[in-house]
Amino acid sequence: MYETALAETWALFGDYACGSETALTCAVSTSPLTIEAQRALNSSFATFGYGRDATTFVVIRGTSGQEQPLDPQALFTLIEGFDPLLLVATDADATRLLAEAYRCALPLDDASRAFGRTVVAFRNFEALMESAQTKQVAWALLKRLPKFGEY
User: Fold this and answer.
1) What is the pLDDT of residue 23?
2) Which of the chain's termini has less CB crowding within 10 Å, N or C?
């Protein structure tokens, strides 16, 4: 049953996602993340026991930028179809849409919960990749996510 839902979700929303097709983690961003930002998230999740390259990256505006942006209902359907264990919103706009989709408050630069999942919401994750000092700020927030098996 899970595999069917996952395959259907990829068929419906493949233009809005990239990365692992069987991921335990999901990062939502307004625009495609840089390779450096993707590597940083994958490395963090590997450290927490979720495996290497274990992230599905969801892009609200689509991976090519030619798609219609996801609305809250579509984002909810996409994430529930992928069924990740945890979520990361990488920018303020993605956080707002995720909060609207899940009908809950998701404070920026903090950890919270949505529909039983731990969520970390960044104001601008990519900007934090610019220096060693700001990378530590991002790492401190990511460390608030549970390690694999600690739910």
Assistant:
1) 87
2) N
Task: Kindly report the CATH number assigned to the domain that includes residue 32.
Answer: 3.40.470.10
Residue from 49, 60, 62, 119 nearest 93 by CA: 60
Residue 150 lies in a domain: no
**Those residues with Cβ within 8 angstroms of residue 34's Cβ, 6 or more apart along the chain or in another chain:** 126, 129
Buried b / exposed e along 43-55 (16+ C-beta atoms within 10 A): ebbbebebbeebb
Helix (H) and strand (E) counts in the chain: 5, 6
Q: Note the pLDDT tens digit of each residue in 21-68.
A: 988 999 999 999 999 999 999 999 999 999 988 899 999 999 887 889
Order across the sheet with 110-114: list the strands. Answer: 17-19, 55-59, 25-29, 86-89, 117-121, 110-114
Q: What is the pLDDT averaged over residues 123-132?
A: 96
Looking at the 3D structure of the chain, how many domains does it have? 1
